[in-house]
Each structure stands twice: as structure tokens, then as C-alpha cells.
Known about the structure:
By secondary structure, the chain is mainly beta. It folds into five domains: 140 residues, Jelly Rolls; 87 residues, Immunoglobulin-like (Sandwich), CATH 2.60.40; 164 residues, Glycosidases (TIM Barrel); 112 residues, Immunoglobulins (Immunoglobulin-like, Sandwich); 106 residues, Immunoglobulin-like (Sandwich). It contains eight helices and 47 strands. The strands form eleven sheets. An eight-stranded parallel barrel has the order 22-23-24-25-26-27-28-29, surrounded by four helices. It has a six-stranded antiparallel β-sheet with strand order 3-2-4-9-6-7, with no helix packed on it. A five-stranded mixed β-sheet has the order 40-47-46-42-44, with no helix packed on it. α1 runs parallel beside α2 and α4 runs parallel beside α5. The longest helix has 16 residues. The chain starts with a strand and ends with a strand. The mean pLDDT is 97.
Amino acid sequence: MKKICISKGWSLNAPGTNGWVNVDLPNDYSVTLPRDPNAPGGASNGFFPGGKGTYVKEIELGKGHYILDIDGAYMCTAVKLNEYQLVMHPHGYTPFLVDLTERKRKGMNKLVITTNAHQPSTRWYSGAGIYRDVYLWHGGDIRIEPWDVFVSTPTLDKVKVSYEISSDRDADVTLAAEILGSGRAVEAKTVSVSLKAGEKTPVTLEFEVKDARTWSIDDPYLYTMSTKIIENGEIVETDKAKFGIRTVSADAENGLLFNGKPMKLRGGCIHHDHGVLGAADYPAACRRKLTKLKESGFNALRIAHNPPSTNLMEMCDEMGIIVMDEAFDCWRLEKGGELNYHVWFDDWWARDIAAMVRRDRKHPCVIAYSIGNEIPESYGHCDGDEWSARLTAEIKKYDATRLVTSATYQMGDGETWADRTAGYYAPLDICGYNYLYTRYERDHKQFPKRVIWGSETHAIHFYDSWQTVLNNSYVIGDFTWTAYDNLGEAGTGRSCWARDGVIRGISLAGYPWRSCYQGDLDLCGYRRPQSYFREAVWSGGKEPKIFTTHPEHYGEGFTGTEWHWYDVLDSWTFDDKYIGKPVKCEVYTDADEVEWYLNGSLVGKSKTEKAISTLDIPYEKGVLEVIAYKDGKVCGRSSLHTVGKAHSIKLSPETHEITADGRDLCYIDIFVTDENGDRIPDSKAELSCIVDGGELMGIFSGDPKNEDRYGSNICHAFEGRAVAIIKTSAAGEVTVTVGSPKLYSGKAIIKAVK
């Protein structure tokens, strides 16, 4: 079938639109609305409102078969064609297909899609509306429908492809398939097939590929399975599917074997939103997020806690990022709000499992499906054991080549937890432990064949949790919560100095908090201190990174939630009144010892313990430098220096050319700088953005708790920086100007090409 994107040219009536407006997809109508301290979703949803939205589009339909493909819409999505309601899809994240054929008219047809982002229905920012792309599939009376091709690789020299061929009539056809690699045919096969009217006919082919180029995180090579269906010498259907040749297995003795070689997963959890864009899933936003995560050391992602977009999956394939694909955050018991998915689970779980697995099984990046996160039924009650087996079997029905997992947290009596969850874990290939690295060894003694991964871990405990991964074959990886800051779950990563009270345990923050502030990377994609710490623990051999604690807090007590990080700064710029006062300084490194220099003079040495080396140094303006030593040899250097007063705004486009298609995005890094162009690390300057020749999609900072409104052209810097996002549909130059009171404005010119 031919795949046609129909994301452009919709009419929308939703909260904040004041009637009907023209929009293109993806679209999130919630993120630009004023936040409300009394919003029904509260801190969980970042105090963003929800509400109903209606999308309308006229589409021309002719002869043949038409299938609507909605990759994601939040939620309770109703689809009408010419006033006939065809489906109501409750899940807010799973893709779904709608057959339009029986209700279509020749010529123009009215397609109406209604979403209802009702709250409370989530534990994080959900977005609202059709926030992923929409496609139309068109085929004839003999066709291969979406998700009906499955390419697997049982071994590194064998490829198996399974088809389901749909036909509206009896027919005898030839199926011709060939594997393409580097622009040429690698292997080819043909087979004769007899089709029956009104049925899907299964066909399976097996290929032997000698000296195959395998898919890996370092070389994510993709082949193409090219398929033709031929009747009486005429090609009546074509299909192309990208795939990778790789194998995955896991057991307690050998750990995770990827292409037959041991591997440890350096993982992180992510939600689906993209900061100021909300849930709107632009391909460029996905690629940027994945690029930054891979550059900071991650080789695996857990998509928490629902299936991701097709865009993201395809890019993980292309970039070599391993994926844990997750289905649900709740089953039959309420969790995250009275209007959550539990209301529809009994009727929809099987359909949603099928949608997730059948769409994603072609992606080599996926090594495991998760049946759920911290499911209340997992703790030995409400038939949780039986449901675990049922969902696992349902996944295996569609894809027996991947591993099945679930993430579970310790609730209640820790002494009985292992016994109470044993039945739940029994059907699974991998047991996900959330924040339970201290249990790995004792649970291994009780369940010696159990394969474990840290499906969620705290950054603050990362050194110790990672050592358990390295030291035990049966622990195959670690997924930090979280790799990238997300909207909602507001304030769960916050901390507090003693003068402001005490924060401990698990809690959400009040308005105006908007994000969790747990990520290695902030909302804008800038690396936070824990990212550099993790890099030192993971990789070694990297340059050390210096951070300081503001001298006003020297010796002061400090607390935080279970997801906090230390309140440290990449700054050696403090008020004159602190000259001579002690500053707690720390460097993240895998070195044995660090020498500290202030303005060229040695001021002390410090040993490294658990990848952190610390020293108290009296403040003096100038240059603070470290030289790191490993095994007696210099292995790295790092420095901070005192900056001047705020002087200018500096713009740094991440690309200088974009496609003028209304979809491609240009991210522009914004810095508040001194006369020398150095960032002012504590600046919260007000920034305003003007775009000529394009559209400002948003300007925002990594601040987790300000009242800046997304959708405006104004924001406040956080730690002296922000980001603007632009797009355009017109070729030419796009000029972006960012100004701030009493500072010189910054300007950037982006070339837009068709």
C-alpha cells in the first residue's frame, strides 16, 4: 500500500483557539495555554489544562482500499468519516489503524477526529490533541496492509520474513522479495501464492545472508526488504521494509549477548514531550534529543511508560540506540487519576498490545517489550500473576524474537517482596527493578536464573548501582530516571537548603513548577552536573568537569527528594563580598588524584572517591584549574574562570540551514554573555525573540519553575541560557533576533531551502 502523509491542512477547534483555526500536525493544543494552579491534572500534568479538541480535514478518496494511520493522539480519540463514527480509541499513546473503505465516498470526504485530554488521567505531562503524524494508506484489491510484514533474524546469517497478504478476490500471484544492501540485491526469492477472497494469506520466506553486516550501536547498518506481488506479469503491490541483522539473548550466566557478544546497557528513561513543543512529535525534535543523549553516553532508552512515536523508533534504528518498548503504566487498578487507562483496560489491552508489537517488531533497535511499569497488581494480588502471563503470551503471539520485561518497585514489606512478586516475574525474560539495586544479590540467591536490569535508578546512587551491573553477569544494564527532563511530575527532582526547610522522599511541588527536574539533560537539552558524573563513571578517560557550591551555602545542610542532585554550579563567579570565603569545589573524574590551581598557584590535592574529588578553596577572582592524574600520569584538565558583567545576547544556531517544509526545525542556543562572549552562569535575564521570514515555535529555558508562558515570544534565561525553535514554509533567509533590556541584542540568519 502507498503511504501518504496527511498531516498538513487541518482545521482545529480547541481550548484557546477562539473558534476554528488552521493547523498542521503534529499539534499539541495544551502546551501554549495558560497554566493554572487549579488545573485538574495538577502537578502531575505540570499544571497545564486539557480539554476537548476537534480536527477536521477534507480528503479526496477514489477507488481502492484506504486505511487511516494515527500514530498517537491524547486521548479517547473518536474518528468520523462523513458523519459515521468508525472508532473510539481510548489509549493516548498507542498507534491505531482505521479502515475507511466501507464508509468512503467517491471524491471529497469529511474526516473529523475528536480528542479528549481529560484530567486527571496521567502521572506526567500528556499533551492534548493529535500530537503525532497521521497517514493514509491506499491500496488495491490485493495489498499488504500496514504492520503485516515482519522481518526477523534468527541468526546472524539467516533472515526470515513473514507476510500477511490481503485480497478482496481469489487470485494466483507471485511474491518476489529481495534483500537490498548498499544499493544492490544481496539475496532474492520468489514463491507462488494462492489468495482467497476476504482473507489474509500468510507467506513466510527464509534467506541465507553470508557475511552479513550486522546492526549494532556502533554500526547501525540497515538492509531493505523489497517486495513485489505480481499477477499475470503485472506488479499489483509493492512494499519496502528496513531491517537490521542482529541477535539478542539474555541469561543469568552469560548476561546480555548482543550479536553473540556481552553488552551492558547504559540506559536512560524518557517521556514523550519536547519542552516548549509539548507532546508535538516533530522528527527534528526527536533526532536532536536522541543525538544529545547518545553524545552524553547513553546506548539504550526505556520509553516510559507508553509506546513512542514511529519517528523516534526509526531514528533509534538509524542511530544505533537500543530500546525497551513499554505498553502501560496501569492495568485494571486505578493509578494516576480516575480517568486513566484502567477504565478501558479490560476491553482494550489485547488490541493495544497488538498495535504496539505489530508496529514496532520490525525495528532492530527494540530488544524488549515491557508489559507495564509499577503495576499495582504485580504485588501478589488482583490476579496480577495471571495477567503477567496473559500479557506476555499476547506479546509472544506477535513477536517471539524479543524479550519481555516489566518494571516493579518495592511496595510494602521489603522482607516479603521477593516472594510476593515471584509469580508476577515468572513469565518474564527480564525482571525490571526500580530503585532496588541493593536487592540484586540477595534476590539472585533466591532466584539464580533470574535476569535483572535496573529499569529505574537514582542519579544520586549511580556509582554504586553501576558497580552492581559491572560485577554481576545476571544484571544486564541500568536505566536512570531520567535521561531528559520532562514536563509534569513537577518538582520530583527538587532539593532544598536548610534555611528553606527539609525535603525528603517522594513528593510533587506546587505551582509554578512545570517539570520534574530529574534529567541528566534539562528541558532545553543542556547537560546538567549529573550527566558529567555519569560520564565519568561509565566511560572513564573523559576530561574532568569542575563544579562549585555557592559560598553562601558553605557548611549549610542540604536535602532533596530521592531524585535530587547536588546544588552545584559550573561557575567561579561570585560577589566580591565572598572573596576569601571558602567554596566547596568538586570535580567529576575517573582519575586517582586531582591537583587544584588558583591563578596558576597550587592550592591543594585531593583523592577521588566514587568518581568525585573535592576540595575547599578560598574564593579569589581569576582561573580555577584542575589537573587529573591516573596511575601517576596526567589524564585530563579542566578550568573555570571569573566572568564579567552581562553585556550581550549571543545566538548559536545548531544548524544554519533548514528545509522550508513547515516541519523541519532549527534550534538556536541563546546565551547571556559578558564582553568577552563568556556565559553569565547565574543570569535570569528576560529575553524576547523576533523572527522575520519564519515562525517562532517557542522560546524557553531549562528553568523548572518559572511562570513563562509557552507560545509567547518571551522567556527568562536559566543559568544564563535558553533555546529558541523556528520553522518556515518559505525558501530564503530567516532572521532571528533576541534582545534583553540593557543588553546588546543577538542575531542569527538561517537559510531555508525547498
